[in-house]
Amino acid sequence: MTTLLSQFRLARLPAEAEAFRAEVKAFLSTQMPPVPPDIRARSWMGFSAEFSRRMAERGWVGLTLPREYGGASLNAFSRFVLVEELLAAGAPVSAHWIADRQSGPLILKYGTEKQRRFYLPRICAAEAFFCIGMSEPNSGSDLASVGTRAIRMESGWRLNGRKIWTTNAEHCEYMIALVRTSGGPEDRHKGLSQFIVDLSLPGVTVRPIRDLSGDAHFSEVFFDDVALADDALIGQEGGGWEQVTAELAFERSGPERLYSSIVLLDHWIGCLRKSGEAGLHAATIGRFVAHLATLRNMSITVTSQLVSGQSPVVGAALVKDIGTEFEQSIPAVIEAAIAADPSAETDADLYRTVAYLSQIAPTFSLRGGTREILRGMIARGLGLR
């Protein structure tokens, strides 16, 4: 237990990262589309290639990637500030999100020089959008049980299988897929590899899945005898589990695991101030602020570990688990506060925003690893299993 808890020593954002915040705020003040809060609440699910390209013009897509590949060569602290401000404003960042957050760093770390030269400049220019191929039907949260398989041929690979809950697959050019290249599901982590799949290839079929809110962010993706070139493989054959574990540390540790409901919270507080009722909910607001401040400090600590070259898998899992619980509590509490006085007039924007987040909030603890899986990882980190 001491080992895990010692990872969360207080860390602070450096002065240069805080100075960068003013630049981001100035950009958002002129570039954010004038949309209501229920649209801004979609933020990192909001797809706008145009907005992503405006960010790329500033060098803010692939922010942490080296300049030689089109990036800005800034560290994870600067990316933390950028992400925090984008989500607080409700910017539509979904188009470039996956490529910027994890696909680019993954290719940088494990890819060949040819892969780096081809994909990274396109990511940084917001010309190539990536999705993740991890989850599969009938596998639940057991990522090691994947059945999608790539078989080595005389020239390249032959891919068959399917992936599900793939965000933005219908809008993306590429998927980084975790597939089996040897053995079977009983071999668990052995025999897994990662491939870059061009989604325009023959044999790839993308079927959007409409969710409770009416959006269709997710898709099911089918691979039927898809021919992949030799250089579609990332890293070493059979090294997929180590690679995907490192990738998930990027996915689980950022501010997006804290701020999914922040537009709603901000709008609710604004409505309370206008009506003069903020004092009636001061204790609730105070609890939210205290929880957010603590979680933010934990996330900054994980970010500091990424900056130092570590892979804080267990720490990131802890932040993600507690963070998504916080995100889910916001719409539940605000919904209850509105329902407590049925005769009171409710701001229309507030009503639409809380309705949307109440529908989508259950997914917060699913994406990036379910709560049960994460708590198993945390238990191992504490030496409890």
Helices and strands in order:
Layout: H1 2-5, H2 15-31, H3 37-40, H4 49-57, H5 76-89, H6 94-110, H7 113-124, E1 130-133, E2 149-152, E3 157-163, E4 174-180, E5 192-198, E6 204-209, E7 218-228, E8 233-234, H8 240-253, H9 262-275, H10 282-307, H11 313-339, H12 348-360, H13 371-381
Parallel strand pairs: 1-4
Antiparallel strand pairs: 2-3, 3-7, 4-5, 5-8, 6-7
Helix pairs in contact: 2-5, 6-7, 6-8, 8-11, 9-11, 9-12, 10-11, 11-12, 11-13
Report on the structure:
The chain is built from 13 helices and 8 strands. It is of the alpha+beta class and 385 residues long. It folds into 3 domains: 2-128, Butyryl-Coa Dehydrogenase, subunit A, domain 1 (Orthogonal Bundle), CATH 1.10.540.10; 132-239, Butyryl-CoA Dehydrogenase, subunit A, domain 2 (Beta Barrel); 243-381, Butyryl-CoA Dehydrogenase, subunit A, domain 3. The strands form 2 sheets. A 4-stranded mixed β-sheet has the order 1-4-5-8, covered by helices on one side. It has a 4-stranded antiparallel β-sheet with strand order 2-3-7-6, with no helix packed on it. A hairpin with a 4-residue loop joins strand 2 (149-152) and strand 3. It is globular, with a radius of gyration of 21 Å. The model has no long low-confidence stretch (mean pLDDT 89).
In short:
With 385 residues, the chain is of the alpha+beta class. The protein has helices at residues 2-5, 15-31, 37-40, 49-57, 76-89, 94-110, 113-124, 240-253, 262-275, 282-307, 313-339, 348-360, 371-381; strands spanning 130-133, 149-152, 157-163, 174-180, 192-198, 204-209, 218-228, 233-234.
